[in-house]
Design a protein that fits this description.
With 285 residues, the chain is α/β, with parallel strands linked by helices. It folds into two domains: 170 residues, Rossmann fold; 91 residues, K homology (KH) domain (GMP Synthetase, Chain A, domain 3), CATH 3.30.300.20. Helix content is 34%, strand content 25%. The protein has eight helices and ten strands. Strands 1, 2, 3, 4, 5, 6 and 7 form a seven-stranded mixed sheet that branches. Strand 5, helix 4 and strand 6 form a beta-alpha-beta unit. The model has no long low-confidence stretch (mean pLDDT 89). Bound molecules: guanosine-5'-triphosphate and magnesium ion (MG). The site of guanosine-5'-triphosphate has 25 residues, from helix 1.
Length: 285
């Protein structure tokens, strides 16, 4: 059978459920999910192989970066555009819970400029009344700015099969880009770093999670099959250290335990996780 491929970028506002959708399609935790905004920073690639079809997904940072000229966010913007440029088709994911017509069509108009097929996927349909979805599809469809529509729940795995079947039908003759056993561009070290970033995101408030960098110092399978991991949390500002450590070191303990559990689950082994908070060229204030 002839090999076929299709490359899809998953775009949408932050928190729309892009990473949840990718993980569910690919069947593994390759992109972290969090209630807080701007969880995904890197361009994460997920691969789904079905018979002779290879479907490649790019999970991108929230579309808020499409235009913003914020210097700190240049990398995010770059990752977003890399995803868009690489893909054959765009999935624009809409959060039905925070649906705002003007806001969404603005994004879609902008995306029309790149001249790729756009699929609008309404997500979180488990959260709203079913009969309110069709009018929303109609009002966007009337503008002729998108090619087709789906309604799904990425979290509850509703409607995903239809979407995947559609994508399979869109795939075209080409050599595959990835080997049969590759499901992601991200290795285990990246994923374990991301898990710790996500624990910090979940357990600490405000700006801190966005101002730390997780560095892996050791990733070692022991003779008994257990996994030993050492990570540094690099901080740029001295005052973050106290906050991350917490009173009597309780916060960092929570972060460590939460990460250790999540890494264990994801990599399917017993994990011994050690975390250090390290100040990188930060000024004492
Ligand atoms: N109820 C419900 N919640 C969902 C659904 N899909 C995602 N969520 C939740 O929405 C939140 C955001 O999900 P993410 O997948 O991290 O969103 P994202 O679009 O990747 O966000 P960024 O990476 O920050 O741009 C999480 O709390 C998810 O559990 C869904 O279909 N139904
Ligand atoms: Mg994400």
């Amino acid at each position: 059978m002839k090999k076929k491929i299709l490359k899809i970028s998953i775009l949408g506002k932050t928190n729309a459920g892009k990473s949840t959708l990718l993980n569910n399609i690919v069947g593994e935790n390759i992109s972290i999910i969090n209630k807080k905004i701007n969880t995904t920073e890197d361009l994460i690639i997920g691969v789904l192989n079905i018979k002779n079809h290879q479907i490649i997904f790019y999970d991108t940072p929230g579309i808020n970066y499409l235009k913003k000229n914020n210097k700190n966010k240049t990398k995010l913007k770059q990752n977003l555009w890399n995803g868009i440029n690489e893909s054959d088709i765009i999935i624009y994911l809409v959060d039905l819970k925070t649906y705002n017509f003007d806001n969404i069509i603005n994004d879609i108009y902008k995306l029309n400029e790149v001249n790729k097929k756009i699929i609008v996927v309404f997500n979180k349909n488990d959260q709203i009344e079913k009969k309110s979805i069709l009018p929303k599809i109609k009002e966007i469809n009337n503008l002729n700015i998108a090619d087709t529509f789906f309604s799904i729940s990425a979290k509850k795995k509703l409607g995903i099969k239809n979407l995947v079947n559609y994508l399979i039908n869109e795939s075209y003759d080409s050599e595959w880009y990835y080997n049969d056993n590759e499901i992601s561009n991200k290795d285990d070290i990246f994923i374990t770093n991301e898990i710790t970033r996500n624990s910090i995101l979940s357990l600490l408030n405000k700006e801190i999670p966005y101002n730390v960098k997780i560095i892996n110092k050791q990733f070692l399978y022991l003779n008994n099959g257990d996994l030993k991991i050492k990570q540094n949390i690099n901080i740029s500002n001295y005052r973050y250290k106290k906050i991350i450590l917490g009173k009597n070191g309780e916060k960092i303990k929570d972060i460590r335990i939460r990460s250790q559990k999540e890494i264990s689950k994801t990599l399917n082994s017993k994990v011994h996780l050690y975390i250090n908070v390290v100040q990188s060229n930060a000024k004492k204030i």
